[in-house]
Design brief:
The protein is built from four helices and no strands. It is mainly alpha-helical. α1 packs antiparallel against α2 and α1 packs antiparallel against α3. The longest helix is centred in the middle third of the chain and has 42 residues. It is elongated, with a radius of gyration of 32 Å. The two termini are 53 Å apart. 0% of the residues are buried. The N terminus is likely disordered.
């Protein structure tokens, strides 16, 4: 998993597990610590943070879902790169750039009888 928590579901799983451990340890210590029970209590506390079968299955299902999501995200990123490359190539092939677009608008304005577009002065605000 590498990262601390990949998403909220993983965080909730870890949070629930921590609460379960705390609850188990609290139950063990509620009666106090008797000298005769020290070893048994130590073993029980050490086992309290070990996930049970249900937690293991739940964690496994979350990991599988996260992996599927990661694979979809990777595929979408790859598609995005391909599409951006196609867009760039098509703009080059068509010869589209900002200057041509501005020139086209200026000519259209002139044909309609208006003044062509003019560059703004560096400190002027657009209308």
């Amino acid at each position: 998993m590498g990262r601390a928590f990949d998403d909220c579901a993983t965080w909730r799983c870890h949070s629930q597990q921590n609460l379960r451990v705390e609850k188990n340890v609290t139950k063990l210590l509620d009666r106090g610590i008797r000298q005769a029970d020290v070893q048994k209590l130590t073993t029980a506390i050490n086992a309290a943070d070990q996930p049970d079968e249900e937690s293991k299955q739940h964690g496994s299902a979350i990991k599988e879902e996260l992996e599927a999501i990661r694979l979809r995200q990777d595929k979408l990123r790859q598609q995005q790169v391909e599409l951006e490359t196609m867009l760039k190539d098509s703009k080059v092939w068509l010869g589209l750039d900002d200057r041509h677009f501005r020139d086209t608008l200026s000519v259209a304005l002139e044909i309609m009888g208006s003044e062509p577009m003019k560059p703004l002065k560096p400190n002027s605000k657009p209308i």
